[in-house]
Amino acid sequence: MSTTFQLDTATSRANPTPAPMKRLTIPAIRRRKRDGVTAEPIVMLTAYTARQAQLLDAHCDLLLVGDSLGQVIYGLPSSVPVTLDLMIAHGAAVVRGSYHAAVIVDMPFGAYEQSPQQAFASAARVLKETGCAGVKLEGGAAMAETVRFLTERGIPVMGHVGLTPQAVNILGGYNARGRSDAEADKIVADTQALDQAGAFAVVIEGVVEPIAIAATKAVSCPTIGIGASARCDGQVLVTEDMLGMFERVPRFVKRYADVASVVTEAAAQYAAEVRDRSFPGTEQTYQPK
Hints:
- By secondary structure, the protein is α/β, with parallel strands linked by helices.
- Helices cover 36% and strands 18% of the residues.
- It has one domain: TIM Barrel.
- It has eleven helices and twelve strands.
- Helix 9 links the parallel strand 10 and strand 11.
- The radius of gyration is 21 Å and the shape is globular.
């Protein structure tokens, strides 16, 4: 039985609580794919806070602390400004709020591209200061040496190919990738390079479906699709997208709820009751004994 930190809603403080099961491990995730087949697809969602992790944990194999928190949480125009300190702070919160899913933390732009040594220093900080199971970095064959360097030194790495948001300035936007033969061949080759370098899984994002299928078939490690194909070995979405927290719905997102409307309606009702002085009522105030 493992121990984690869960929120005590009576005090809003984190207290050690025994967890009812052991956390999934990276080797267990890797073994989901046997002889090119993943009988049980891998479920991954993003999480940025302890409470969000608590709500998602039982349903997910992997929780990704994505650098998408730059846009989702902080209102930044892209993930490029996100810092290593920011990723570590949110990564630690998600680890504290979970006990079942393996937690993966994105390496932010500028924290790993310079050299394998820089990547190791950054990734070591992430693992030490968050307690997460592994890190994710963007890039294909160009990052294979770094992936090998990290995995050989005990740091599990998830790769990321296709539409790589940190490279938005080079790509010129968030359009689907793999429409040309040359780009399609590169995506498959990039996925293979990461697999051969030791990545335990590879995210394939924003890629035309036949290319995502070809890349999945070409590697022994699991692939995680987002805007790719149901025939990838697993799927990931930004949780706020699939919960309907934003007006814009990317093509690859299915909205499973309309949480934004729930929040808006609750806030409107609260505001009305404050203004007509019906809140707080007797039930929410302390009366003389």
